[in-house]
Amino acid sequence: MSEKPWDGRFSEPTDRAVEAFTSSVEVDRRLYQYDIDGSIAHCKTLARAGILTEDECGELIGGLEKVREEIADGRMEFSDRLEDIHMHVEDRLAAHVGALCRKLHTARSRNDQIALDERLYLKAETQEIITMLSGFRRALVEFAEVNINVVMPGYTHLQRAQPVLFSHHVMAYYEMFSRDTWRFADALERMDVMPLGSAALAGTTYQLDRQYTAQLLGFSKVSENSMDAVSDRDFMIEFMSACSICMMHLSRLSEELVIWSSAEFDFVELPDAFCTGSSIMPQKKNPDIPELVRGKSGRVFGGLMQLLTLMKSLPLAYNRDMQEDKIPVMDAADTLKACLDVYTRMIPRIRINPDTTGKAAAQGFQNATDMADYLVSRGMSFREAHACVGKAVAYALDCGKELHELDLEELRGFSQTIDEDIYRALSVSEMIERRRVYGGTAGSNVAAAVARAKKRLDGEKKQ
Ligand code: ARG
């Protein structure tokens, strides 16, 4: 047998440096389980089409299982001379079944083989990420639940705006990560297409029962067009896009944890087990986990750009450029999973400082909108009320007081409609409780949102 399965027409051996340059086995060896599953399904399909006898099929499958064990036990020697995982598996198969191994590649090309391996790999990764997201979302919901009544300032432009429940803030992240879950589930549908039978690009001359192959491999559909099946990687780009959006959400949460754990804010205390110190400043406790998660988001966004750039000018059908697709995708999947794992374990251990958040919620004129709403309830138009409260804020600033620290006479100076009950309207608890509109921060709303989320997560667990 010649050294390479494709070197029949070549008159000199491949240059060593070219072998090293073109090899992808360091990366695609991770796909070996999928490659072998695909080959086993292909054997069965060939047997069904009468291309292999049942005995041959059985022998090949037995050999493939032995190769699987060898790789799992670390007994396979990987070498650039054999380019990729497909050639490594076939080479070892020869050691177990001899010349019969040469029949395995009938009606198949490495082009449809890699498209298959990538889809199988990505389906498994996506399912794992969905499960991990479910666990992470549960951690968020439980974090909201144990801190359900803690109040904090809500921000816009990172300036104190209106008080909210801390749990409402946390549940905002639950919503983001629920949409991320939905995005991955949606991407999964488009990955779930079986490409074998497309061969190099035009399809194969053998009448393969492609539905049968799909069924063996757990795909719900077969590809409609052989050229599309071997040459597009949109399902990977979509996966990268879902990873990027999810990392962007994780990065925003990270930024908040970094800010909140600073002495200036002092809203939260991160667990010691999830922080590190400084080699020079003995007093330091640094929020490394959120910082690293924030930093790793850049890597995943970069991978998305890498893949889009890789694909944008490729003529149909397969081009070797596409071998480069696996690096960013595998890195994104590994990175996202690592971030979700560490956050799911850290979130329940974060301690909130309700005194600091509560004090911060009562300062900085965060009740100005509520004072305007109070005046509206007394018959003033909102624009007029806005201007009136603006003047009251300016006056209070001059006196170094908050609105609720002005006495009734001072307040009535801005509008005679103001009564003693204004103080209730300007209290933090009342401001929160009055935001009972669906989706607002009132305690009963947040409790209902937490209950809905828990029910949904229980449902996801049963699936
Ligand atoms: N290692 C290749 C890849 O990852 C497998 C397909 C090779 N096909 C080819 N015609 N050389 O894309």
Description:
With 463 residues, the chain is mainly α. The chain has three domains: 7-106, Fumarase C, Chain B, domain 1 (Orthogonal Bundle), CATH 1.10.275.10; 111-206 and 220-359, Up-down Bundle (Fumarase C, Chain A, domain 2); 361-462, Ribonucleotide Reductase Protein R1, domain 1 (Orthogonal Bundle), CATH 1.10.40. Helices cover 60% and strands 5% of the residues. The strands form three sheets. The chain has a two-stranded antiparallel ribbon. The chain has a two-stranded parallel ribbon with strand order 3-4. Helix 8 links the parallel strand 3 and strand 4 (221-222). Arginine (ARG) binds next to helix 6. Residues 24, 28, 84, 110-111, 114, 318, 320, 322-323 line the site of arginine.
Give average pLDDT, whole number.
96
| Biggest sheet character | 2 strands, antiparallel
Gross geometry: elongated
Q: How many structural domains in the coordinates?
A: 3
Task: List SSEs in N-to-C order.
Answer: HHHHHHEEHEHEHHEHHEHHHHHHH
Q: Judging by the overall fold, what is the CATH architecture of the largest domain?
A: Up-down Bundle
Give the arrangement of secondary structure elements.
Blueprint: H1 16-22, H2 25-28, H3 32-48, H4 54-72, H5 85-97, H6 110-146, E1 151-156, E2 159-165, H7 166-191, E3 193-194, H8 210-217, E4 221-222, H9 226-231, H10 234-260, E5 268-269, H11 288-311, H12 326-346, E6 351-352, H13 354-361, H14 368-377, H15 382-399, H16 408-412, H17 422-425, H18 428-433, H19 443-462
Parallel strand pairs: 3-4
Antiparallel strand pairs: 1-2, 5-6
Helix pairs in contact: 3-4, 3-6, 3-8, 4-5, 6-7, 6-12, 6-19, 7-10, 7-19, 10-11, 10-12, 11-12, 14-15
Arginine binds at residues 24, 28, 84, 110-111, 114, 318, 320, 322-323.
